[in-house]
Amino acid sequence: FRVGYGKGFYDRFLLKCHQDIIKIGLSKFEPVDKIDDINEYDIKMDFCVMAEHTWVFNK
């Protein structure tokens, strides 16, 4: 879900893109079980690619 560090930069950028764009995040960090500070402006990723796993969201 979360891209960046909570300042909204990527969310504002993604709002300017076509709505049907596929959103793919890359992560070198371990996944967390739950993110508590999600708000209505956060935009969900469709995929998150990590070194040993790819997570699929919004399906």
The ordered H/E elements are HEEE
User: Roughly how much helix do the residues carry, as a percent range?
Assistant: 10-25%
Spatial gap, N to C terminus: 14 Å
List the strand order in the largest sheet. 1-2-3
> What oligomeric state best describes the polypeptide chains here?
single chain
Note the overall shape. Answer: globular
Beta-sheet strand percentage? 15-25%
Mean pLDDT: 84
Secondary structure: number of strands: 3
Key features of this structure:
alpha+beta; 15% strand; three-stranded mixed β-sheet
Describe the overall structure:
The protein is of the alpha+beta class and 59 residues long. The chain has one domain. The chain has one helix and three strands; from the N terminus they run αβββ. The protein has one helix spanning 9-15; strands at residues 24-26, 47-49, 54-56. It has a three-stranded mixed beta sheet, with no helix packed on it. Strand 2 and strand 3 form a beta hairpin. It is globular, with a radius of gyration of 12 Å.
Give me a quick take on this structure.
By secondary structure, the protein is α+β, with helices and mostly antiparallel strands. The chain has one domain (1-59). It has one helix and three strands, in the order αβββ.
Secondary-structure map:
Blueprint: H1 9-15, E1 24-26, E2 47-49, E3 54-56
Parallel strand pairs: 1-2
Antiparallel strand pairs: 2-3
